[in-house]
Each structure stands twice: as C-alpha cells, then as structure tokens.
Amino acid sequence: MKPKSFTYLRPASIDEAVQALARWREDARILAGGQSLVAMMNLRLIEAQALIDVSDLAPLAYIRESNGEIEVGASTTQAQFMMWPTLAECAPLLSAALPHVGHYQTRSRGTVCGSIAHSDPSSELPLCLATLGGSVVVTSSRGTRVLPCGDFQIGMLTTARLPDELITAVRFPTRRPGAGYAFAEMAQRHGDFAICAVAAMVSGETTRLGVGGVAEKPTVREWAGLDESGIDDALNDLAWDLGGTDDSHATAAYRRGLVRRLGRQVIEEAKKCSS
Predict the structure, then answer these.
(1) Can you list the domains of the chain with their CATH numbers?
(2) Does residue 58 carry a pLDDT above 90?
C-alpha cells in the first residue's frame, strides 16, 4: 500500500517551514527522518495533504551543551547524537539508551526530535527525556515556547505541540555531579520497541525511576531515602499503579514483573555508579 497523494514542501529556512505550517496546520506533517511517519502513511494510518521536509535545514543540524543542558536540533539524527564525542561523559543515560533505539540503519535517518515528536510510549528517547526532566522547544509564526517534558507528552502518540508549531530542538539535562544512571529494557529482539524499558537516576538520597512500554506515556516515580529493604515494595507499588494491558507481545502481569525485576536492576546499577 502507498500513501495518498500530497504536496511535498522543502523549506529553505525555519521561517519558511513555520509559515508553511501556519498555512496547512492540521493538514501538514513534518518530515525529518521519516522512520515512523512514512511507514504509517504507507499503511494509511495517517494522511497528510502537505509534507514539510526539514531534514536538510542546516540551522537545525546541531548538538550543543550550555547551562547544564544538551540541546539537539530537529534535523540531528540518532546516529549523529550517538557518536557525539562527549555523550557518555555529559549524558550517560542517553549513551546507554541510544544503542537500543531501532537499528543501525534506522538510526542513520531517524532523528532525536522525531522520536520525541512521535511520542511512542515504548520508545527509549521519550523515556530518557521524562526521566531526566528535559524539555522541548517549539516554534511557530507566533514565536517560540519551551515545554517541560511533563507538559509536552500527553499520551500515546499524543503531544502538546499545536498544529502550527515546529519542534526545533529538544533539551536534555546534563549529568548531575555525583549522580549515577542506568538503563535496561526487554524487547522481542534488540532494536524492537520495548515491552518494558526502565531508566534510573540516583543522586544523593533521591532515586528517580522512569518506566516506558507499560502505560500510555513514560511514567516517572521519585523516592527520597529509598534503601535496599524498601526497593521491592516501592517497585511493586509502582508496577500495580502503572497497570498495563495484555497485547500480542506480553501480558499485563508479565510487564508488571519486568517493572519489578528491571527496576531493581537499574536502581542497583545507578547506585553503584553514583558517588
């Protein structure tokens, strides 16, 4: 199956892109890497009257660190971010998670911001964004606003981006001094969407755990003074709070079990890495 016919637009600037969005609004789709969008259009799960291609916009092709954040532009691919020389030092959680994002071939085209925009609850980058407490930069003809991840990610494949807004960047907080980070997931095969994914950050007496693949969006829980004796009870409560559903990949009970097992694994690993 192939997509319905559409108008293809290749803006030469960010301003031209947002003007096109202002014109087409709900009838437009943004193309950056296209790893999810094109497949969904081919299956006619979604339609677009206009496809606005920002993949080669030079002003959006950057990775920069400033003021305790790593800002990634909208046309930066996952592979480029994964190969950023200081990634492991500045963002160890992202360094651990990125090898699980898709496959070598898809990472060469898929973008960091595209994954955030798609907002699949099983996707690794939205989970990392939520766990770290990052934010998303959106631009329209009306100006620019910065949305905290908790406000941006609304539900399954749903965000707070307005129809005339372009995601121009995503911001991840850099490593906190003395903090430890860890990531793990269970998938049917490496590179598939996670049946359950977990990300942990331990800083001082605070333990922060993000869980993806169970609820309709990444869920983050934070505990103060969580010691060894309390981990299992805390994870059990979280697993039941998340609920989960049965599907063709796993049962809700299996996912709850993964929250408990993988959650303990990453919390212990993050504690070992903290100082």
Answers:
(1) 7-53 (3.30.43.10), 59-173 (3.30.465.10), 180-273 (3.30.390.50)
(2) yes
